[in-house]
Hints:
By secondary structure, this protein is of the alpha/beta class. Helices cover 36% and strands 24% of the residues. It has nine helices and ten strands. Strands 6-7-8-3-9-10 form a six-stranded mixed β-sheet, with helices on both faces. Strands 2-1-4-5 form a four-stranded antiparallel β-sheet, covered by helices on one side. α3 (98-109) crosses α4 (114-127) and α5 runs parallel beside α6 (173-188). It is globular and about 55 Å long. Residues 44-45, 165 line the site of magnesium ion. Magnesium ion binds at residues 44-45, 165.
Amino acid sequence: MSEAMIQISGLSKSFGPLEVLRDIDLEVERGEVVCIIGPSGSGKSTLLRCVNLLEEPSAGKVVVDGVELTDPETDLDAARRHIGMVFQQFNLFTHLHVLDNLTIAQRKVLNRDKAEAERVARHNLERVGLAEKANAMPAQLSGGQQQRVAIARALSMNPRVMLFDEPTSALDPELVGDVLGVMRQLADEGMTMLVVTHEMQFAREVADRVLFMDGGGIVEQGPPSEVIGNPKQERTRTFLARVLDPTHTHVAD
Ligand SMILES: Nc1ncnc2c1ncn2[C@@H]1O[C@H](COP(=O)(O)OP(=O)(O)OP(=O)(O)O)[C@@H](O)[C@H]1O
Ligand SMILES: [Mg+2]
């Protein structure tokens, strides 16, 4: 199949009178890593949440791996199985051991038996460098380790696409690198990824394409060397000046 993994067309989303996404068109190729940057409130999370229909679009079409999620006939639960999502807050089950966090959805949703689910779980814990933490409780792990468990949990469902919404922004700075390292490895393995992030260095090094969003639309997109390295739009330049130098308070001349 040569069609794009994610095909979004004419996507709009309003909350009451507030128009949050305006007529977005976006295709993400198989194996492509797209980073989304932009100011707070620009609609980044809403766009990501529309990809798996956690938010219902007001208009437009979302197709993932050939399945139209916006078609009312589509079995959404089935379609979502192929879409992994990792949030800023790790959303682990705090009362379950790491291993159980990774096996519960495999068993309930994919009907894997206990032995198979545990085999997959241990394989994915190893991928994120946490094989020895299978029997730990989430509270016994650092934030970075918890986020890597959350990634391993998503991977245990054999996703075809991974969505990340600011996966490192709740972490202490010294824990960010390990999580980005795991994401970089996933990208190298060919995972299709849509990543909302403020980590410009990661975006520069790992993204095939960077989107700058503002006011519910895609203002500028292209290779990171262009969008981050040499932005064409004034709004992109202003945003980057603020992100790259937080002490910078006014617009550059
Ligand atoms: N469930 C909701 N109900 C009403 N308004 C919402 C809802 N979710 C988001 N919004 C509004 O939509 C706009 C876009 O929000 P969104 O979370 O997508 O922004 P964002 O770009 O992810 O911002 P941030 O960088 O702060 O995470 C904001 O004005 C927000 O207040
Ligand atoms: Mg957000």
